[in-house]
Amino acid sequence: MPTEPIRRAPRRFPLHWLGILPFAIFATLFLILPTMRIVLGAFQTPDGGFTLQNMLDLNTDSIRAAYWTSIKLSFYTAALGCAVGFAMAAAVVFGGLPKGVRSPLLTFSGVASNFAGVPLAFAFIATIGPVGLITVWLRTEFGINLRAYGFNLLSFWGLVITYLFFQIPLMILIITPALDGLKREWREAAAVLGATGVQYWRMVALPILFPSILGTFALLFANAFGAVATAFALTGPQLNIVPIKLFAQIRGDVLGNPNLGYALAFGMILITAGANLLYIWLRVRSERWLK
User: Fold this and answer.
1) How far from chain centre, in Å, is Cα 160?
2) Domain that holds residue 63
3) Residue-level pLDDT at 273
4) Number of structural domains, the chain?
5) Where does the secretion signal sit in this chain (predicted)?
6) What's the maximum distance between 2 C-alpha atoms anywhere in the chain?
7) Taking the mean position of all CA atoms in its chain, how far away is CA 207?
8) Residue 231 near residue 239, CB atoms below 8 Å
């Protein structure tokens, strides 16, 4: 008897992929395509030809100084953010503070870690700026002139203090789950073996947490390196950092060179991408330890 041909079911589009379709469109339009444009523009002349001159032009005193200043700014804010944020998170998790403190702290950290740009700069200028609320109060009530002591918010260290407003909360958000992952049995075992609290942290807890701490440091470094709105709103063009120099090149004034701006942005992409890849790698290692 003749057999009937096997009918194949028509292929259907997997509907479960529709859930990430908006994210894919958003990432393509506002992340992937602009990044590709920056990479291509870094190696193009104004008329569209290929050139390496834009990359060679990065090797100037002004641009090298801008990169070095940005690296120092990112390093200091990442280091201070890690130190202070770790201490605050450890105090909440292990310090015996009331349980009601943890939830408000994490809620505030979630808000503050995303509070940046012009509103953050205005808040600090209105608070501790040259005529800020606290600055004037200290001068009129206690005779303390912060400017006489060398403090200037519109400077490198003033920008460091401002960046810590979102760097410390970000550290708290990331390191708190890692601290929660430390098992109580490890501390009890160390105590049974005669280890003190300092020895436990030095020989058990910190080696386990080190990948998380170093990874978070890399993330905070990348976070500060790419910030531009806060720095420009606070100090203007007087502070020589890469984001401000990049803004000056691409805004279209007479001295602007968009292709040099693309090269500056390409350098920033390489640095921040390296820091983020280091964070991802260390985070995977730390999660493996905590399991």
Assistant:
1) 13
2) 49-113+167-290
3) 87
4) 1
5) none
6) 108
7) 23
8) yes
Fill in the amino acid letter for 245.
Answer: K
Structural tokens at position 114 = 């995303």
Whether 32 is covered by a domain: the verdict is no
pLDDT given for residue 149 in this prediction: 81
Q: Annotate 149-203 with DSSP letters as a single string.
A: TT--SSSHHHHHHHHHHHHHHHHHHHHHHHHHTS-HHHHHHHHHTT--HHHHIII
Local structure of 50: helix, strand or coil: strand
Place of tokens 């953010």: 81
Which residue numbers in the chain have pLDDT < 70? Answer: 1-14, 250-256, 287-291
Closest alpha carbon to 230 in 110, 45, 74, 57:
74
pLDDT, position 171: 95
What is the distance between the alpha carbons of residues 80 and 63, in angstroms, rounded to a whole number? 26
Sign of CA dihedral 42, 47, 48, 51: negative
- Cβ contact 81:112 at 8 Å: no
Encode pLDDT of 59-106 as tens digits. 888 889 989 999 999 999 999 999 999 999 999 988 777 878 888 999
Count of CB atoms situated within 10 Å of the CB of 219: 25
- The conformation of residue 32, written as its DSSP 8-state character, comes to I
Residues contacting 25, CB < 8 A, separation 6+? none
Q: Identify whether 36 is part of a domain.
A: no
Cα dist from 233 to 36, 87, 117, 211, 280, whole Å: 28, 30, 7, 34, 31
- The answer to whether residues 169 and 113 touch, using CB atoms and an 8 Å cutoff, is yes
Token digits of residue 215? 């990874």
Sign (positive/negative) of CA torsion 272, 274, 280, 285?
Answer: negative
Cα 219 to chain centroid distance, Å, stands at: 5
Is residue 171 domain-resident? yes
pLDDT of residue 200: 87
Chain centroid, CA 183 distance in Å: 29
Residue 255 included in any domain: yes
The pLDDT assigned to 68 comes to 92
- Which pLDDT belongs to residue 281? 84
